[in-house]
Amino acid sequence: MARLAVMLLQASRLVPFERSVPHGLQVSGELIWNRDGQLELSFGVLAAAVSSLSELVVPDGLIDGPQVAGQRRDELWTTTCFEAFLAIPDQPGYWEINLAPNGDWASYRFEGYRSGQSQQPLDSAPEITLRRWHHQLRLDARLDLSSWWPNECCPELSLTTVLDRGANGISHWALRHGDSRADFHDRSTFLQA
After folding, report:
1. Cβ distance 92 to 111 under 8 Å?
2. In what order do the strands lie in the sheet with 6-16?
3. What is the DSSP letter of 120?
4. At residue 151, does pLDDT exceed 90?
5. According to a count of CB atoms within 10 Å of the terminal CB, is the N or C end of the chain lower?
6. DSSP per residue over 23-76, as a string?
7. According to the model, what pLDDT value does residue 4 have?
8. Judging by beta carbons within 10 Å of its beta carbon (0-12, 13-18, 19+), is residue 17 exposed, middle or buried?
9. What pLDDT digit, counting tens, does each position of 111-130 carry?
10. pLDDT recorded at residue 1
């Protein structure tokens, strides 16, 4: 199947807000935005030591490959979760997409900074695939946003990750952070298209 015309391709290493993250732990995020509102996301977690990866809190019963049993669920961000924030340039509203390793997902619309939150329906559930190796976890997702995203409009964006390391705490990863706290909703941390 041929790939649709790409408007935006972003691949970056994400940085943790917390300083207590193990030195050998790395997170990356990639986004491909197609002209017709198709979004492809990829997130990778790489650990220098297998123990860093095995301490991640993830849903029980994970399988490698397509996550066909995923459902829409709220509060995915309270544990290991991969996220994308999208905004239309020069508009106060924005969208949040949450993806869990087991295929669970959520999408929200905000009218302004952390205000006016509502569920953003998707015409179909995201296609989510999980791959795990000794030192790496990778989540790939495809979402069709064409029914509500303006045609030919390239988003401002932020790619983020929450890693739940159990007794070792939660860490917040993003392309960049503000100064005082980890706040994925802060539009000043979004990349401008």
Report:
1. yes
2. 65-66, 127-132, 136-144, 38-47, 25-34, 6-16, 170-174, 156-164, 81-87, 94-99, 105-110, 118-119
3. -
4. no
5. N
6. TTEEEEEEEEEETTSEEEEEEEEEESSHHHHHTS---TT--SEE-TT--B-S-G
7. 52
8. middle
9. 999 999 999 999 999 999 99
10. 45
